[in-house]
Amino acid sequence: MTRYADIPKPIRSGIVVVNPDTGTPQRIIVLQFNPDTLERSVSPQSAGDSGDAGGGGTGSGDRNEALRLKGPAQETWKFTAEIDATDQFEIAAPDGIHPQLATLEMLVQPTTTQLRDAMRLSQKGSIEISPIEMPLTLFTWGSKRVMPVRLTELSINESAFDVNLNPIRASLSIGMKILTVSDLPAGHRGADLYMAHLAQKERLAAAARGGSLGSLGLSGIGAGAAGIPSGRG
After folding, report:
1. What is the pTM (predicted TM-score) of this model?
2. Where is this region: Disordered (predicted)?
3. Which residues of the chain have pLDDT under 70?
4. CA-to-CA distance for 167 and 16, rounded, in angstroms?
5. Digit-coded pLDDT (tens) for 187-216
6. Which residue, 11, 14, 10, is CA-closest to 31?
7. Three-state SS string across 163-230, please?
């Protein structure tokens, strides 16, 4: 029998739920199959944006802010993940993929204990009840992409069931927002992890090979350079 010992084992993407106080992983969710595609949207926080349809604003003050940023860019990710019990389990799975689906759903749900505590405070007549804080969630896509996230979308399409109507195959559309230092309080572990993620981007950008003006058909940058209009009629 031919063996391929030198073939590296593929790294899986996944989600890690972390205790924000201790940094200890509380749960690790390994995606069964890596998504075929990732949809990423990166929107800069421009200081000159006024919220108008054009985003550029009006007034002389906006011109002074054209190249300024208010903070880190807002980034969102979307992808489709698949879970298939027939490929994943080597032993009997009496609940199908219910446990895997429930684990993902609990990333956007408070626990029964948290809900009971909130209801108890409400019954005691507490004027203000703080929103329930969820654990810190990290999304990992290899060693170069480890970032704090908040799930914004979880759409589940169950497509096969066993004789007890337990789902055994499903595709999940998952949307998430990368949490930055603008979203988290100073000193929060998630803010530190975002800074590490951003520093990784800086290192990768520094490793990119630079181009030349000649490849763009330019001899220089300035009003008199070839290919750059001077603005004079």
Report:
1. 0.80
2. 39-65
3. 1-6, 49-61, 87-92, 127-128, 223-233
4. 24
5. 899 999 999 999 999 999 999 998 899 898
6. 14
7. CCCCEEEEEEEEEEEECCCCCCCCCCHHHHHHHHHHHHHHHHHHHCCCCCHHHHCCCCCCCCCCCCCC
